Amino acid sequence: MTFDSKQFLSTVSASPGVYRMLDTQGNTLYVGKAKRLHNRLASYFRGTLNAKTQAMVSRIADIQLTVTRSDIEALLLEQTLIKSLRPPYNILLRDDKSYPFIFVTDRHPFPALEYKRVRQRKDDGRYLGPYPGSGAVRESLALMQKIFRIRSCEDSVFAHRSRPCLQYQIERCSAPCVGYISEADYQRDLEHAIMCLEGKSESVTQALTEAMEQASAALDFEEAARLRDQIQQLRSLQQQQFVDTQGGDADIFALAQRPGGLSVAILGVRDGRLLGARHHTPTNDLDLDPGALLANVVSQYYFVQPHDIPDEVITSHALDDGSLLQDALAQHAGKRIRLAHQVRGHRAQWQSLAVTNAEQHLNATLASRQQMDERFAALQKALGLEQQPERLECFDISHSHGEATVASCVVFDPDGPRKKDYRRFNIQDIAAGDDYAAMQQALTRRLKRITADAGIAPDILIVDGGKGQLNMAREVLETLNITSITLLGVAKGSTRKAGLETLFLDTPEHPLELDSTSPALHLVQHIRDESHRFAIAGHRAARDKTRRTSTLQEVPGIGPKRRRELLRFFGGLQGVKKANRGDLARVPGINDALADAIYQSLHG
Question: What's the pLDDT score for residue 244?
């Protein structure tokens, strides 16, 4: 039965609340929240929607509503439902790893600080964390054992000790197993360690200072010296943290997104110490913009999964309904929370580091073998090939107004980029800015090696630049009598936006229409972008080298001032090379004899 949206919308209130979209079997497709339910739901049935949202709306058989008293209550309920229902069209932080914690049991008079990796916290003690990685946990444990001498042994070992172990000898444990410290004193040291792990090291330092002064007043100089050493170690740690990161507690969320994949990096900073990074690769089935996507990630991270909320949450993009999310986080944590994306100083460095982590993780994901296999298979199907291609080569041209023209050739196989097979061609003896001639020269030089049995032939040859470059590549293949290579041209769409490219198979008369979500298109985009990057890098290196070692330096009588006047007069070295003797003599400071010397030097 078709869902009657008009009748349904006539009964929906304008109150805040949560909605669940259901299919014909009663399964939840999507869970959403709204400040005004009527306005939000009406947007699904009016106006222009992207293809993915249209696909979801076409499956709706019913919509169930829950009216809430406030926006924050709607946000919290939304995350609760996402956690329990896991709808296919919602952003889901799928993570098969348990989280590392520091655990302190409440069932032992002398608890150890333990490393534990669990999915859900239990009621058998105190959990500190979660931490982004195991390295951060082990480093923190080592610091606490060094400063406060908290035991690290198993309970079974502790119960059967008759004398102190090596940890006591190297001053990493106070030996509670043999009664060298009282239960009260051990619990005090343990509480100080926990406070430091929670970012309260300054409070611990003040408490230790007061205790040291009391011990000194009581003439207990041995205890005062022990406390002094602890204070010095803490001060040293705080000073190092201040120099490195300026202190503070924060979680940083950064999004990297390209056609075919996205990655979210989450960095944790506690008491100024970077604890590590964790990565997620959620699906974005509704093509949400970065602000909406990151808002969903932040909401799930704190409301669905067991994470403590720091005083500050930093994001790489401005979040949709950021103020609402900030209020919800503050209510959930019971304290004031700052949510920001425009930051300066050391916080901007954290943000930049998170973005770098997200981009690197995304690069690794896109290059993974499993994803490459899927993309290669999809490309085989899209091109109608009998066998799956094993080698793709893509060519691109880069220059600055004809200066230092470089062609790139990048190679992909089912394992991803084969960087050892990448090649660059320095293009010579063509008219400045003639991309077609540059492509012809690069392809001829590359493909001649195949005809001479000196190179491996690609299964698919991809050229970036549209119909003209495709025709040029076809002419080269025909001239060299090569018929075994499939030719694919890539032309940017009218808006030059990723996902709107047009592909041409062999000739401009055979365009390929691929959906923006097609793995085959994502593979072509990936190799095209890599070819573009490699060409630009080569061009810049060649251009900078030319400018550093200008051939004008070799002309007698031409010093820095005259070189500068020549380049300024003709707009660059290419212009100087095109000038005749008369034009050169018109430059201030250049007489006929120098003009002749310059011309002879440049043209032989």
Answer: 42
Give the ranges where 463-518 is alpha helix by DSSP (H): 467-479
Q: Which residue has the tokens 């090939």?
A: 385
Q: Per this entry, what is the length of the chain? A: 604
Give the pair of three-digit tokens for residue 364. 């690794």
* Whether pLDDT at 55 is above 80: yes
CATH 1.20.1330.10 assigned to 370-546: no
- From the list 373, 321, 315, the residue with the least C-alpha distance to 339 is 315
Question: Which residues are paired to 417 by β-bridges?
Answer: 412
Q: What is the Cα–Cα distance from 281 to 260, expressed in whole angstroms?
A: 11
- β-partners of residue 22 are 28, 62
Q: Which among 110, 291, 280, 97 is positioned nearest to 186, based on CA atoms?
A: 110
Q: In this model, does residue 207 exceed pLDDT 70?
A: yes
The pLDDT tens digits for 120-133 are 667 678 887 767 66
Domain 550-603 matching CATH 1.10.150.20: the answer reads: yes
Beta bridge partners of 63: 21
Residue 236's pLDDT is what? 62
Architecture of domain 5-85: 3-Layer(aba) Sandwich (3.40)
In sign, the C-alpha dihedral spanning 441, 444, 446, 452 is negative
Q: Which H/E stretch holds residue 255?
A: strand 250-258
Which H, E and C letters describe 217-254, residue by residue?
Answer: HCCCHHHHHHHHHHHHHHHHHHHHHHHHHCCCCEEEEE
Q: What is the amino acid identity at position 592?
A: D
